């Protein structure tokens, strides 16, 4: 193991430390997405992709391009695409949410 390695580089099996952290990619996104927990926006709990999905039933057409541009302008270590999801529990349980799905960068230095 070397500090700059991603989990996949270790070739070890991922053992989820929480039901809400099913993948190593989730662990990379969690520190930033944890900030969403205290807002009126879903952080994807209640889906198969917690902390990779973010949105709400009230998200409109103007908000998504602004969010995507904000991520690019900030040099974020993640990419996003539009997503629709319906949480089975937690915020907006049973309601269709519109938002984004985040993908962590493959560059470990982007998270320093």
TrEMBL record:
Domain Peptidoglycan beta-N-acetylmuramidase NamZ C-terminal: 28-104
GO MF annotation, one: peptidoglycan beta-N-acetylmuramidase activity
Pfam family, one: NamZ_C
Superkingdom of source: Eukaryota
Record InterPro entries: NamZ (IPR008302), NamZ_C (IPR048503)
Protein name according to UniProt: Peptidoglycan beta-N-acetylmuramidase NamZ C-terminal domain-containing protein
Species of origin: Prasinoderma singulare
């Amino acid at each position: 193991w070397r500090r700059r390695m991603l989990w996949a580089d270790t070739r070890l099996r991922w053992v989820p430390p929480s039901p809400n952290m099913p993948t190593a990619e989730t662990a990379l996104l969690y520190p930033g997405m944890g900030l969403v927990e205290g807002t009126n926006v879903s952080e994807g709990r209640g889906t198969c992709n917690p902390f990779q999905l973010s949105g709400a039933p009230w998200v409109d057409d103007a908000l998504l391009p602004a969010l995507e541009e904000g991520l690019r302008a900030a040099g974020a270590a993640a990419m996003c695409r539009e997503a629709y999801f319906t949480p089975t529990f937690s915020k907006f349980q049973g309601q269709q949410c519109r938002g984004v799905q985040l993908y962590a960068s493959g560059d470990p230095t982007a998270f320093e």
